[in-house]
Amino acid sequence: MYVCLCHGISDKKIKKLAIDEGITDIRGLKRCTALGSQCGKCVKQAKAILAETEPFRLKQAC
């Protein structure tokens, strides 16, 4: 499912970044993607996805 329609960022991409790169917050996602940089409607959903992936994170951000 697309979370950020403005930039085509999916929930799978967010989960992959969170788990593989250790992204823990929106600031980290913004460093690696353009998430939230246009309309911002995706930020709330992205935060929920990050919270879901918390037990699976491996290392620190990219």
Describe, in plain words, how this protein is organized in 3D.
By secondary structure, the protein is mostly helical. It has one domain (2-59): Arc Repressor Mutant, subunit A. Helices cover 47% and strands 8% of the residues. It contains 3 helices and 2 strands. It has helices at residues 11-21, 26-32, 43-53; strands at 2-4, 9-10. A two-stranded antiparallel sheet has the order 1-2. Strand 1 (2-4) and strand 2 (9-10) form a beta hairpin. Helix 1 (11-21) packs across helix 3. It is globular. It starts with a strand and ends in a 9-residue tail after the last helix. The mean pLDDT is 91. Belongs to the Bfd family. Keywords: 2Fe-2S, Electron transport, Iron, Iron-sulfur, Metal-binding, Transport. GO terms for molecular function: 2 iron, 2 sulfur cluster binding; metal ion binding.
Q: What topology does this entry show?
A:
Blueprint: E1 2-4, E2 9-10, H1 11-21, H2 26-32, H3 43-53
Antiparallel strand pairs: 1-2
In short:
One of its GO terms (molecular function) is metal ion binding. It contains three helices and two strands. With 62 residues, the chain is mostly helical.
Descriptive labels:
single chain, 62 residues, mainly alpha, Arc Repressor Mutant, subunit A, 3 helices, 2 strands, globular
What's the overall geometry? globular
Strand runs, count: 2
Low-pLDDT regions: none
Secondary structural class: mainly alpha
**Helical content band:** 40-55%
